[in-house]
Amino acid sequence: MSSKRPLSYPNWECVIKYMNSDARVLLSQHCPELRRLEKSIPLKVRYFNFRCQQAIFLNDSVYQVGIISQYHDEKYIITDDIQYHNNNGGLTHDVDKYGFPVAPWYFRRDDDNNLQKQKKEIQNRIEQLKEQLPGSADVLENAVKELKHLNNIIFRRDLQSKNLEPPFTHYLQLTIIPMSLLANYPITSRINGTTRTERLVYEQPLENAQKYLIDKLFGGRSQIFVGHMGLSDNDHHFPMGSLLRVQNLTIGSRSFVQYQDKVESVLEYKNYPLETLSLTGEELNHPIAETAKKLLFTGLPSGFPVIRHGNVEFSGYFDSGYFTTSVQQLVQHMLSIKTRIGVCYAFISFFKIKKTELIEKIKETHEEQVKLVVKTRNDTFSSCVVLQLTETSDLFVYWANGTIKIEVLPSGSPVPIEND
Description:
By secondary structure, the chain is an alpha/beta fold. It has helices at 9-17, 21-30, 32-40, 80-87, 111-130, 137-161, 206-218, 260-266, 287-290, 320-337, 355-365, and strands spanning 43-47, 56-58, 61-71, 168-178, 196-201, 224-231, 244-251, 276-280, 295-298, 311-316, 344-349, 370-375, 382-388, 393-400, 403-410. Helix 5 (111-130) packs antiparallel against helix 6 (137-161) and helix 10 packs parallel to helix 11. It comes from Caenorhabditis latens.
């Protein structure tokens, strides 16, 4: 016989801990009595970048705030671009009442003449394409759509100049999309009941609504575990009162100073170091980089071959010559400064590189320091060269799973070569 007794507080703690994260968020919003308990239990997020203009990927659901246009007359023929935004979460930038972006550069007063000139050019092109049918059918269809879009802009510009009301109203819309639907993106129809939406009249900046959503979902949480987090611009909004434990972080090192204080206030990188930190441009001179277990570089940092961190992977579209030169520069640098044991650097090129050339050049350049050369089973090229670094350490240069690695190991260590 089933019991109808409500769950006790300790039982709720156990249930929430293993509950789907999306269900947890809904429970927290609808049950104020459980909100404090739910927010005290760590939340796991696979990926999030805390940017206001980005959708929020919360494990099995995507939360998106945007601006949609709802026309007063259902028979009104909506242009494809507006329909697209309405179907896919709305615009992610602020607009005026006529749908034009709120930015001083978007339209100047002399743009009206240019619009009419563009319209005439498109109309002439359409007439020419009609004479070339049926071969021009696809191009003609696109030109007709372009003209329809341009006419809509001219129409709204005319309403704006006369201070007339547009035939639509803007709404702020929150769209919650199951992750499974994104496999068919762009989503042309969301009427199957699996996608949820909420709307408000658009009366405040979009950024305010986006920040409100971030705070509502993540604010006041004791701990948030984030698998991957990206930082690239200065429009990030970190929830107050929350602590983030991030495994893999990607940042634009050149602009990091813009949000450094915010990151330090929410990221527990000192007690829970990053697994990987991805960078571009230059190596980050900050404890967040020093404590990371591994740095991932797209390209080479500006100070190359000088690298402070002891575990770095470089990747990019290196051609054979640049790749070989870069590896040789790093090897020479490591030999000259007597790099400490345990340091390991890796290079990945998205172009095919000849392994034979690279190993042979390093062997020839540092011939007096060569202790060992290990070849593959078929003896077609050298897999590894070992150079003496100090009396107790050696520098290993070897291939492993398509990656060239440069590693300092104790003298006499086995060669970690790739298996053929």
